[in-house]
Amino acid sequence: MSEPTAPFADRDLRRIIQQVVESTPVIDLHTHLFPPRFGALSLWGIDELVTYHYLIAEVFRFTPLSPEHFWAMSKAEQADLIWEHLFVRNTPLSEATRGVVAVLTAFGLDPAARDLREARAFFASADVEQHFHRVLDMANVSAAVMTNDPFHTDEARVWCASGGGNGRFHAALRLDPLLNQWETTPARLSAQGYGVSAAIDGQTAREARRFLDEWIARMQPLYMAVSLPSDFAYPEQSARAELLRQVIFPTAREHGVPFAMMIGVRRAVNPALRDAGDGVGKADLGAVEAICRENPDCRFLVTVLSRENQHELVVAARKFSNLLPFGCWWFLNNPSIVAEITAERLEMLGSSFVPQHSDARILEQVIYKWRHARRVVAEALFASCRDLAADGWPLTREHIERDVRRLFSENFSNWVGLDRPAVVPAE
To answer: Domain 47-124 carries which CATH code?
Structure first.
């Protein structure tokens, strides 16, 4: 017999929800992590944590140092500079700096140390393979989905040599060069033996689909994905729109692989900051509605970068059952904003969405990103369950466990067919 929570005081209901949220494993559906076999693409350790591009952008608010001077430094020198200005001379109040504090604390290291010597010694002594599993276990992440670019020479070499996935790391086929850089992509495809031209005619579409077919067979991706600018439009007269219509959507349909759209980026707002210099813009979500309406037999994962687009995305998801909203991306991944977005989605979609992904680029970030996310999701779910119980629903612990499983793993795994049979490459 399940333990009814409706008669309990608020503090008991909150405690139960917190316990369930903390103990439920999560599938991290969008990361930029790579397992150790990817070599230099696999980022972990204190110097990578402290030189994360969010902290790079922040440090220029506290020092007159020029970007040119900063980029001339070694990685260790950059980390020392950031540590001095953001953690020694100033209180680490931002979400990005608090995250580093949370990681160091989780490993029993001093988050208020005057320098990085202790942390560097700790990570230098780690067995890399064991460390990766330990970190995922600490974050209670059962599986992580990578971001995999077949146009990246070093990454493609790993896939072609021995494959890149393993039990806890799954692939996502990233299509940014194909869709956003078509002016240079035909030459790259031609160099690999694909008969494409700048004109997106029948021959080019067939060859682009052959390229995707081969990489889907090689990677076994859970979904295809692209990051789109804030001025993304569909339909329109553009190479990207033609590639979506003639190549991407037919491929998604044929293979049963969902397509993820991450919309709202404004690249290189401040190019001197490199990866730290991207910004955010409000998008027209009429494009998402048109795509879902035109392709009812395809499944789409969508996240948007602008806070102002969130309500529109939720409304679109109510109208199109082939649309799954997910996560709070980039600049939205701050507790105050995640709380607002999660509450809005619960109120309008019930449990039929994915509340968060880490977007982690450095392995240890999953510790703090999921620790912080779980707190926020638990509070949002508590508010919904408290009001539901007050309205007379006989809430039980099983209800809460079922809903958290859906939010943290089942909605995504069902959407992408995580247990579907593997595609066998053609001979």
So the answer is: 1.10.2020.10
